[in-house]
Amino acid sequence: MNTFSSIFPEEKSIPASVKLSSDLEQREYLINGQMLTWSGDLNPVMSPVFVKEGNDYRQMKIGSTPMLTSKEALSALDAAVNAYDLGHGVWPTMTVSERIGHVEIFLGKMKEKRQEVVNLLMWEIGKSQKDSEKEFDRTCDYIVDTINALKDLDRRSSRFVQEQGIMGQIRRVPLGVALCMGPYNYPLNETFTTLFPALIMGNTVVFKPAKYGVLLIRPLLEAFRTSFPAGVINVIYGRGRETVGALMETGKIDVFAFIGTNKGANDLKKLHPKSHRLRAILGLDAKNLAIILPDADIDNAVSECILGSLSFNGQRCTAIKIIFAHKDIVDQFLKKFCEAVSKLKPGMPWDAGVALTPVPEPGKTAYLNDLVDDAIQHGAKVMNANGGEILHTFFYPAVLFPVNDKMKVYSEEQFGPVIPIRSYETDNEIIEYVLNSNFGQQLSIFGKDSKKIAHLIDAFSNQVGRININTQCQRGPDTFPFNGRKDSAEGTLSVTDALRSFSIRTLVATKITDDNKKIIGNIIRNRESAFLSTDYIF
């Protein structure tokens, strides 16, 4: 009998507060300010949650979404292109204060849908209720922080600069039409961390929700429709290969915001006929490393590495994907790490205190099992009790040791609850691993020797985007830059960096003469230009 045979509930035992009202058949999509109805094929949305029926299990179908084609995608693009109107449209020519007003209207309407979105996060991607609530609230906070950051940016831009007899005003202006695509693991938060900076800077947007975690956008469609002018935000669905490929081939996409795999990003960028004109903001793969030095506080290292490797089942680009523990303490670290894994509560997303939940990707448990089998064939052992046990969409974490470079899990990003651990003896072993990795997002160093830590910081500072000391790899706070090197990212995101990424600086300048000063003064005093202004946003 499977150890976790009782992990999936009977349907009658699911709390009423988290139950979905019915099978959510979505046919709506948003183009040019109109909620259109799709009459074609639908894509079923299957939850990672199964329900127990006697000795059998049934996977829950929670809804369906429209399988739009390239025709609808191109119609959405036309709407965005027309709304931008070569920079002359209503949205890009609005004042910053006016655009902020529209975003604030949306935010108010979004907050009314909190419970509905949180429930869909749980059912669609298996995220715990606590983390789903956190994702929603953090997204709202991010939008507020974005508004405040833009106010600061505009205040700094409201003054004129004088240099070498020239006076000028420098402001940030939009780039054009943006295509925004987010990941399934943070289908609300990470999607909106590109979508709203793109919008608030004056770009128009075609938005395609993530492959999984797509239904949760439905409650927000009406808020999008009523909060922004027609064509400013267009929401499409369907197979990415058909819809997104058609958009890129037109060459009319000016900004490509994508969070996913580097292969997917490369394939899509190649379709654009004028790649030099395409601004790309990409969050891609990672193989983040944790280094446990011989003098590390083992309890802290274990606690942080558990969070880093298994929060949301390790399905985060910022997760710790491999651990190098010094040979002098590896046995102690392994023992405590496996004990900590055994204390994590498996269950359904709505269960109190749950830490391990089903995974949403079809075929994911088979892939993870293949990684474990491959590692065993090349000399690793599963170190924790029940490690790698599977029941449908549930995969119990597998701690693998010792791992080596012959194993797939040594270099592949597993994006799931498989934790490879290797012992090391010299710094060169970990330095070589980082230097030779295709990825360069983050790493964590656990230890107390400042000289040793400083040496490793210097060794890695030109290899990864963030080095964490005695703490897990992570994205936040959102005011910190979030980037990566090699195949891990292109561009930098943070509250302020995102505003810069979705805009470009434009300068109006003139020689400092009495006549020119009079002209500029008249323009500002009579409010004859939306660009030239000394208004101060409160």
Can you tell me about this structure?
- This protein is α/β, with parallel strands linked by helices.
- It has two domains: 30-52 and 60-283, 3-Layer(aba) Sandwich (Aldehyde Dehydrogenase, Chain A, domain 1), CATH 3.40.605.10; 288-481, Aldehyde Dehydrogenase, Chain A, domain 2.
- It is built from 16 helices and 25 strands.
- The protein has a seven-stranded mixed sheet, with helices on both faces. Strands 10-9-8-11-12-24 form a six-stranded mixed sheet, sandwiched between helices. A three-stranded mixed sheet has the order 1-5-4.
- Helix 12 links the parallel strand 18 and strand 19.
- Helix 5 crosses helix 15 and helix 9 packs across helix 10.
- The radius of gyration is 25 Å and the shape is globular.
